[in-house]
## 1
Amino acid sequence: MTHWWRHAAIYQIYVRSFADRDGDGEGDLAGVRDRLPYLRELGVDALWFTPWYTSPMADGGYDVADYRDIDPRFGSLAQAEQLINEAHRHGLRVLVDLVPNHCSDQHPWFQQALASPPGSPERERFWFLPGRGESGELPPNDWQSYFGGDAWTRITEADGTPGPWYLHMFTPQQPDLNWEHPGVRAEFEDILHFWLRRGVDGFRIDVAHGLAKKPGLPDVGPHPDVSDLPYQDCEGVHEIYRDWRKILDSYEGSRTFVGEVWLPTAEQSARYLRPDELHSAFNFELLCCPWDATALRTVVDDTFAGHLPVGAPPTWVLSNHDTIRHVTRYGRADTSFDMGDKRLLDPSDLTLGRRRARAAALLTLALPGGVYIYQGDELGLPEVQDLPDVLLQDPTFVRSGGRDRGRDGCRIPLPWSASGTSLGFSPDGAAEAWLPQPADWSSLTVESQLADPDSFLTLYRTALALRAERLVPLPETLTWVDAGRDTLCFDRPGGFRCLVNLGTQPVTLPADATVVLASGPLEGRALPADSAVWLHL
C-alpha cells in the first residue's frame, strides 16, 4: 500500500489571514469551513493549519498558552472538531501544527515557574540557570535568539531580587521547554493523543531539530561549526520522535508527521526520516535555491540521494508563512533566499516573477513526492513590501532593531472578491482586515481568477487534477533528459515529460510530443524563456 502522505498535495492555512466569518477583521475556523468547497475543488489532498491554539500572539500563535484549546479569536474547540469532520467529508485530511520546542510565557507551567522559589520542580520544566559575572548579571552562555538578541532573559524574584535567567531561542515570550524533564515528555505525548482522538491525520512539528540541547548548554564560541551547534540537531531528539512514532502508529488510518528541519546538510536532515521517526520533512533547499537550472537540478538530485537510504519521500515547497513569497523572489536580480538575510526591500519585477512562479509550480507538481502549497500561491500573490512600520507585528522587526522587517508581508489576508470588505476576506460591514491588502490585489481575487482560463488559479487547479490522475499512481522515480543548456527536463514512467526553460531563448519541443499543460503561451512548437510544459511522448 502506498501511503497518502508520500505523494500528497498539502495546502497550508494561516488561519488569521484565510477567511473571516465573524467580521472582526481576522480569519477564523468558521471562515475556513465556508471555504472547504474551494479547497476541495482546488484539488489538494490535505490541509495544514498553523497554530490555532490559545495564544497571546507574541509570535503569530507559535507562543502557545494552551495546547488543548482554540484561541477565541479563531473559534472554539467544538468548532475545530466540526471543521475536522467537515474537511474529512470533503475528502480533505487535516494536519495541525505542534509547537514543542517552547510555549508561551502565559502558559500555566511558566507562570507557576515564575511564582515558585529557586530550585523548585516547577522551574525544572524550563531552562532556568544562574548568570555569569560577579553578580550573575551576564547570560549563562553566548547563545543568540533566532529572532535577534540574547537567547536569555533574567527574571526578578517575588521579593524583588534579581533571579536566574531563562532560555528562549525565539522571543522572551517563548520560553524553551526542557526536554530532559520526564513531565515535559509525558505532557506532549498526551497532547498527541488529545488531537489524534479528535481525528487529525497528522502533525507538522515546529522547530523539529531544536528540542534537545547539548548537556551543560556550552557556548557556541566565536567560530561555530554550523553543523554542530549546541542548541539544535542533538542526539536526544531522535528518542523523542521514536516514542511519538509509536503513538501515531497505534491509531487506525495512515497518520503522519512532517518536520520543520532547517539543517546544513541533507545527511543531517535524513536522520529524522528513518523508518521509526518522522515520515517526511520540508525541503527548504528548493525554496532557497536560485532560479538556475544547474542549481535546481543539484537540489533535486541531492534530495533523492538523501531520502533514498531511509526510504522517505521527498517534499517540495516554494513559499510558506516565514519566507518571501516566491513570485517576488523570482522577480529579483538575486533569486536565492536566505533566512538570515531576506532582503525584504530588494526590488522585484513581478511580471518576470509571476512567469517564473508559474513554471516553478509545474516543476514541483511534476516531481515525485509530496508538495506543499502556501495559501495564496495558487493566486500568484506577491510579497507586500511597503507595509508602514506602525502596522508591522512580527517580533523579528523589533528584536532586530528594524533591520529585519519581518514576515508580515507574506501573511496578508487573502483576496476573495473585488467587492466586499477587505476584498471579500470579511463579510460586508465588518472591521478592516488586521493587515491591509494592496489596492491592486483586486485583480488577483479568487472570484476574478475563477473566471479567467489563463489565471494562476486555473493553472493550479488544472495541474493538481492532472497530477492526481496521471502522476500520483506512478513509481517515485524520474529520468533526466538532456534538453539543452539552461533547461530542466525529466521523464516519469508512462510517457510523461516535464520541461522547464530557465534560459533566455526559446526551446524547441520534441516533434512527437503532445502538449498536456503549459505554464503560459507557447511560441508555436517552442517553449519560451522562464516557462514550463508537461508533455506526453
Note: Residues 350-366 form the longest helix (17 residues).
## 2
Amino acid sequence: MKIRTPRARIAAPLCLQPALAAMAVVAACSAQAQAQPAPNSEAGSPVQIAQNLRAPSLTETVVTATRTPQPLSDLVADVTVIDRDTIETSGATGLADVLARVPGIEFSRNGGPGTTTGVFLRGAESRFTAVYIDGVRIDSQSTGGAAWEAIPLAQIDRIEVLRGPAGAVYGSDAMGGVIQIFTKRGENGVAPYVGIGVGSHSTTKIEAGVSGATGTIDYALGIAREKSKGFNARTVATQNPDRDGYESTSANARLGLQINAAHRLDATLLANDLDSGYDNGLGKDDRNQHQLHALGLTWQAQWTTAYKTRLQVTDSRDQYETTPSVYLSETHLRGYLFQNEWRQGAHLVTAALERREDNLQNAPIDRSRSQDAIALGYGYTAGGHTLQANVRHDSDSEFGGKGTGSLAYGYTFAPQWRATASVGTAFRAPTLYQRFSEYGVGSLKPESSRNAEVGLRWAQGSNSFSATVYRNRVQDLISFGAPGPCPSPFGCYVNTARAEYKGVTFAGSYRLAGVLGGVQLRGSLDLQDPRDLDTGKQLARRAKRHGTLGADTQLAGWTVGAEVQASGRRFDTVANTNVLGGYTLVNLYASTRIARDFTLVARVDNVGDKHYELARTYATAGRTAYVGVKWAPQ
C-alpha cells in the first residue's frame, strides 16, 4: 500500500566563517557613523526604522504590522520592505530566492524553481508564516502553509516581511511572522513596459504590462511567461536522469475607482499556472501542475476625519496535481473582513470582524470549516513613546475558541536611537488534512506559541543598524507519530512535540562616501537555535548561523554590486542523522540604462560554482547567469 501523504513543503538556509568579519565591519561602520551626520539626515529628529534591503524613507508607510497604514517612523515591529527595483536587480526566478536575502529567512527547495519550496522565518516551520497577496490569504489545507513555488515573482511590486508572531492581528497561521505581497497599482499617466530575459539552463522570460490612472480610475495589468529546461534535480541512481524544467504563465489585474474624496473601490486578481518536473523514480517524467489564484474586492470609506472603515471580500484557490503519479489536492479559501479605525491625536483604536472559510478536496476528503473572529487594537505615538496593544478571539467551527494577545513598546531614548520590547501569543489550527485524512486525528488541538523579544535600532540618513533578540516557544506542535489513533497502520498526526525558536538578528546598512563615488554596504547575520525541546535535536533544515553581505556602487553609468550568502551546517532529518554541509555563495550583478527607455540587467549567481544542497539528494543549479532588457518609457 502506498502512503498518500501530501508532498512536504520543506525549507532551507544560507557558511558563515568568511562572512562573519565582514558583517562586523558593517555593524561597526554603522555605529561609527553616529558622530558623522549624513548629508540628508535630520539631526536631532527621533528616527525609528524598519530593517530593509535598501534603506527606506522614514515617511514610507507599511500595513503589515497592524493591518493599518503606519509610517516606518512609528513602527515597533521588526519589518523589512522589498521594492520592485530590488526584485528586478536580483535577477531571481523564484520568490524564495529574493526572500533568502532578507534578515531572518532561510529556504529549502527540492531542486530548481517550480519545485516544492519552504520558507523558514526566524527558524519557524514554513506553515507558521501567514502569507497574503493584496490582502488575500494564501494557504494549503493539505500540506499547511503557502505554496511558495506557485507565487509568481514577475507580478510582485512590493513585499513586506514582518518577523515575529502576529496572531492577535491576523488569527491562525501567523506564529513565525507575516509576509504581505502587493501587486502594482496604477499612477497618473500611462506606463507600459515590456521585458525579455535569457539565462542558464535555457531559461527564457518575457513580460509585458501597462498601468496608469485617468480621472477617478486607476489600473494595472501584467502578464509574464517563464520557461526553463532546468537541470537534473536528483542525481542518485534510483531516480530518472532527466532535466527537471518548468513553465509558468502568470497574470495580474488591478482596478481602482475613487468614487469621491471619501470612498474608494479596489479589485485585484493574481493567477499563475505552473508546470514543473520532479523525480519520483526511474523511467518516469513526473510533473507538478500547480494552479494558484487570488481575488480580492475592497471598499474603503473615510466617514469623518477621525473614523474610517475597510470592507474586504477575498477568495483564493490552490490546486496541486501530479502526473503520472496520481495525486490531486485543492484548497479553497474565502475571507470577509470589516476593519474600523478611529484616530484622535496620538491615539489609534481599531476593531475588526473577520470570517474565514476553508475547504479541502483531496479524495476521499471533502471537508470544510470556518473561523469567526473579533479583534481589537490600540496604538499610541507621542513624545518618543510608541505603544501597541492587540487582542483577538477566534471561534473555530471544529475545535472551539482561541484567544491571542500582544503588547509592544518602543522608546526613542536619544536622537537616532530606539529601543523596543514586545510579547505576544499566536496559534495555528490543524489543517483539514491533519484532521480528516487516513493519518488524521479529529481531536488534534491548535499549535500555540508564546514569543518575547527586545530590539535596538539606530538610523541616520541612509545608514542604519539593528539588533533583535527573540524567543518563541511552541506547544502542541503537530508531528507524524506512531500508529494508533488513526486508521493508517503507518502512523498518525499527533500533538506531542514542543519546539523553541530563539536567536538574535543583526542587520545594517552603511554608505561609504568618497569611495568610487559612494559604496552602499548592507548585511544581516542570524545566530539562532531552532530546537525540538523534547529530543534536544536541532530542527531539520535550519542552520544555527546564516547571513548575507552586499555592496553596490555607481561606475561609468553602471550600477554594479556583489553579495555573499552564507549558511552553517544543517540536518536533513529531525533525528539529526543526515548532514547538509554549510556553504558560501558569491553573486555579482550589474545594471545600466542602454537607451532613454531601456534598462539592461545582468547577473551571475554562485560565481564559484559551489556544490551544496538545500534538501538531501536534491541538486542545486550551480553557477548560473541571467541577462534581461526592459523597455519602460520615462
Note: Helices lie at 17-32, 84-90, 95-99, 167-170, 432-436.
## 3
Amino acid sequence: MSAPEERAALPPASLYSCALRLLRAEPDGRLPEGGYALPDPPERRPRTRTSWKSACEALTEVLTEALTPPASRTDADADADADTDAGADTGTDAPGVARAAEEIHPRLAGLSIRGGHVQSVVTGLPLADEGRARALGRCLTRTGTSPMAVCVGLALLTRLGEPEDVPYLRVLGRLRDLADHAVRALDPIDSPAAALVWLGRHTRGPELRGLVDALAAGEESSVPGRLEAVLRKVREVRPETARRVAEAVRLADLLREARPGETGLVAGTGRLLRRMSSANDYRAEVLACPVAVGLFEAFAVRAAELPPTLDHHAILLSVALELHSGPSRLLEWGAGRREALLDRLESVLGRPDWRALLAGGSAEDGDPAGQRRLDWARRTARQPFRRDAGCTGPAGRLRIEATVLDPVDPDIVETRVLIDGRPLVPAAFGRGGAHAPEYLLDSGRLRATDEPREVQLAEAYCTEGCCGALHVTIRRDGDHVIWSDWRRPAPPPSLLPARELPEYRFEAAAYDAEIARAENDHSWAWPARKTARLIAAGVRDRPDLLTRWDVEQGWIGTDFRDRDRTVVTLVHRAVPSAGQGGEDAHRQHLVWHVPDDGTTPEHRAAAALHRLATVDPRTYGGGGAGRSARSA
C-alpha cells in the first residue's frame, strides 16, 4: 500500500485535534483574524433533501436514542465500550457514551440543519439523565470529525457545560464555523473566555486586533494601553463589541485596581457603558452582560477623579440618564444600589467647578458641535436626577419621558415608557428603541378613547417586516385605561427571563394627566427640533395648508447630517409626461430646508406656516429654502 493510500485509510482526525494543531503552530498563541477555516472534510455522503421540520425531528430521534441508556448490557458489550472509551480523550467515563457517540456520528454528519436550529432542538430536548447528556456533549466536541457532530456536542454543553470544558471550547472557538457555537457554550461558565473567542472571530481594525492579540498571548502588561486605544474610539464599534471588550479584559476589576489619576480609563469606561446600552444593534447589550452592575459601580466610584471638561460632563450625564430610565434600570440591582450610583454622579456634577462648565455662554473656539453638546447638557442636566420616574401605585404607574442622548451619538431621541419604574420597550421587545416623541406623543397615539386602538410602540432596528415590532391595544374602560392584546416577536436572548406581557390597568385620571404632561413637555427639544414639531402641529391642525396645493405631508424633522436645520418634506403627484405609466411613477418629493434666521422656534414655525398658506411649495427655491424633487 502506498503512503497516500495509507493516509487515506486512517480515520479522520477530530476537529478539536485539528484546531489544537493550528493553535500550537501560531506564534505566541495569537488569534487569527476571523478564525481558521475548517480542515478539508472527508468525502461527503449524499444528503437527502428534507424540510426543516423533518431535519429537526431526525435530530431529536438521534439524540433521544443516544441519551437512552441500554436496558441490558452483556460482558461483551462492556468490554467493547471499554475499548472504545480507551481509544481517545472522550471526556467521559459514563459506560457506553463513547460508543453511542461513535454510532450516531454518521447519522449526524448526514443531517442538513443550521446551527441555530440545532441549538433550538437541543434546548427543548427533555434530559432524564443530565450526566449522560453532558458526557455525550463532551465526547462529540472532543472526538467529532464532522461540523454537525461537534455542533451538537457544543449545543449540549451550552446547557450542561462546566469549567473543565473551557479549554476544549476555547480551542474549538478558533475554527471560524464553530466559533459562535463555542461562544454560546462558554458564556454561562466563563464569560471572559467567551468574549475573547467572540472578539477573535468578529473584530477588525488595528486597535481591536492589538487588544485581542495581547489578551490571547497573555501579555498582561500591554493590555491597559491597548484597551485605552480601543476606548478612545468606542463610539465607532458595535454595542456587542463594546460588551465583549468589557468582559474579555475584566474591565470592572481593572478599574478598581487602577491607580488614582488614570482618567483615560475612567472616561473610556463611561463611553463604553453608554455604547453597551445603545439599542442601535437591535438589543441593549448591557442586559446580556453578567458584570454590568459591577462595572457601573466601579465607574461611579472613580467618577470624581475626572477633571471638569465638557466631554467628561457629557459622559457622566449619559451614564446617569442610562441609570435613570434606560435599559440598565432592568438589571438586578438590589435595594438602593442604583439610586446610590445616581446620588454619586449627582454629587460630582453638582460641584461648583462642574456647574461652572454650563454657566458659560458659548463653547470653546465657537465649535458648533461643542455648542450643540453644551446646549444639550444645559437642557438635560436635571432630568436623570428626578425621582418621579420610579413612582409606583395606581396614580403613578406610568411615566413617559422624551430623552435626548449625547449629540455625538447617531440616534439621539427616544421616548422612554416606564411602568412601575421599569422601562417597557427593552424589557418587552429588545429589538430596537421606542418610536420618537413626534410619533407617539405629538400624534396623540397614546391618548385613550372608548374605541380600542392598536399602537406600535417600537419597531425593530432593521424593519418590522424583518424582525418585528411591539404593538399594544389602548382602550378606556370606565375609570381605567387598559393596555392589552400585545403583539411582538419572541425577544432576543439576554439575562432577562422571557415572560408574557400582562394587561396593564391605569387610573384614567392619572393616565390622562401623564399623557397631557408628556405631550406638552417641550423642554427636551433643541430649537430646530422644536420648530419642526410646531410646523407639524400646524399642518395637522390646518390640513388645508397642503390640500390647496395638491401636496401631502411627508416627514418633518431635523436634518440627519445637520441637526440644527429643520427639514420639511412634502409629496406631490405630478402630471405624468408622455410615455409614463403607473400610479407611483408621478410622485415627487419636495424637500424644504427652513432657514434659521436667528428668531425663536415659534416665530420660525409661524413664518413657515404662513408661507405654506400663501405660496405654492412646488415653487420653493432659493431665498434660503432648498428644493429638490425625485421620482418615487
Note: The CA atoms of residues 1 and 171 lie 35 Å apart.
## 4
Amino acid sequence: MTSEGNLIQGEWLRAVAPDGLQQSVGLLKALSEAHTIRRLELPVHTMLPVVLRQVLLPVMIDALGAPRTRQEWAERFHRGHFSPDERDRLAHYLGPRYGDRFRLFDAERPFAQAAGLEALNGDTKTAAQLVPSVASGNNVPLFSALSEADELLLTPEDAALWLLHVHCWDTASIKTGAVGDPQAKNGKTTGNPTGPLGQLGVIVPTGQTLYETLLLNTPILPDGLEPGDRPQWAWNERPATLGCKPPAEAAWSERPATGLLDLLTFQARRIRLIACETEQGPRVHRAIVSAGDRLAQTPEFEPHTAWQHTIKPKKGQPHRRPRRHTSGRTAWQGLGTLLAMTLPVESDGPYTSLLLRQIGDLQRSRVLSGSYPLGVETSGLEYGAHPSVVENAIGDDLPLPVNALLAQDDGLREALLECVAQADQAARALDGLNNDLRRAAGGDPLPRDKGSRPSAQFLHSLDQTMRRLLAGLRTVDEDDEELLERAQLAWEQSVQIAADLEASLLLAAAPPRAVVGRTVKNGDKEFVYRSGKAIGVFRTRLADILPRAAEERRVQREETAAA
C-alpha cells in the first residue's frame, strides 16, 4: 500500500483463487476480477460482512445501480462477471469520480475517518482499541497476548480492516470526548450503543465466486435507491434537509438510515488513525475513537439479519426486531430461523433474512437453480452484561439447499427441521440419562448453568454429518420423496450411533453403586433410580425420537430371526 494508504490500488485484501492460491489485491481489482476470486481471506469471521457492507457492495451498487427486477438480477448473475462496460464504470467511479476518497492517510479526507479529530484532553490511545481481541480499556480478553501498555503497530492493510470493523462491531464503552462534539461531557461521551452489526445476528449468503457472493448480497430494489441515499464517502451529496451530520466532523446525531447505501456504510464512530514511520514503512500506532452516529432503529430493509416477529409488542416497540445468534450453537442448529420463509401471523416467531427470502423467490421463479451450491456464513459478537466488553465471537458457515428456501414447498424444509429437532431431542435425552445416573449413584443432577454436559460432545460429533447431509440435499429435487426418506434414515442412524456411543461412555463412568441405585422421595411419591432403568428409559426415548432407525432395526431383527 502506498504512503497515502490508497485502498483502490493498494494491496490490502487477501483474495483466494479457485485453485487455492492467494494474492493481495486492491479494491478495484477485487471488484473488476471478482469472478476469478473464490473468497476473501480475512483475519476473523466477523470481518466478511464488514468488507462487503463498508466497501464492496456500496461501491458496486452506487456505480452500477441496484437491479430493479428479477430478470435484471438474473442477467447479471448468470453472466458470471462484470461486463466491459460495468468494469469501465467501476474504474471511473474509483478513479475520476471518487478516487480521492479512498486514501487512509489523506490529510483532508481520510477514508472512514474525521480529519483533524482531537480529544478534549489532547490524548490519544493505542491502536489496540481497534482490535477486540487485544486488551484495551474495560475490554480485557482472557488470552490477549498484549496488555494496554504494549504498543501495537498495525500495517496500513490491517489498520484499514480494523477501522471498518470498529464502525460495525465496536463495543458500547465510554468514548473519548472530541473537540467540536457538543454532546461530550467531562471529556467523554456515554450512552453509546454497540456498532450496528453488534445488534444483529449477521447472515451472509455466499456463492462460488466473490462475484456471485456480491450478487447474492444485493437486494432487488424495484424503485431503485432512495432519493438522497449516499455512501459515507459521498456524504456531501446528501440533501441538507435530511439533517445528517457530516461524518468527517466530530458532531453526531441519532437518526434513521436514509437508505441502503447509508445503512451499509453507517459511520457509528468518529475515528482518526495516527501513523508513525518505521523501517518497514508507515504503521498505525495510535488512534482516537469517539462517538459517532447512532442508528435510531434497525430498518426492515436491513439485508443481513433474521428477525423475531412479535404479534403484540410492548408499547413503543416494533413488531419486528433483529434476531441474534445464540452462543454455543452451530449454524445448523439455527436452521429453524434460517428457513422461516413466511411471516408468523398467529404467534410470535422467527422470520428469515431479506436476502434468503429473495433467494427463495428467485428459485421459485426459476431464476436460480434449486441445485445451486449456496453457502451461508453467520457471525456475531457476544458482549458482556454491559456491552462495553466482548465476551465471545460467533462464526460459522454451512451449505444450504436452495430448494429449502421455497416458501410454498414444505417437504425439504420440514425434513431438515425434523433432523435438527431430532438432534436437539437426542441431546436432551443424553442429558437426562446423565442426570438419572448421577441420582442413581447418590448425587444430584447438574444445574442448568454449570458443568460439562454430554449433549455438547454429542452435538459436536454430529456436526460434520449434518454438513454432509446439507451438501448432499442441495442436489435433491423437492419432489424426490424416496431419496429424501433415505437421507433421513441415514441421518437417524448416524444420530443413533453417536447417541449410543455417548450413552455407553456415561454408563461406563457410573460407579458400581449406581447398579443398585436408590429411592428418592418427593412429597408423597417415590422415585427409583438405577443405572439399568436409566438406560432403558433412554433407549425408549431414543426410539421415539428416531422412528425410522428404530423401524429399520426391528425389520433387521425379524429377518435375522426368520433366517
Note: The chain has a mean pLDDT of 89.
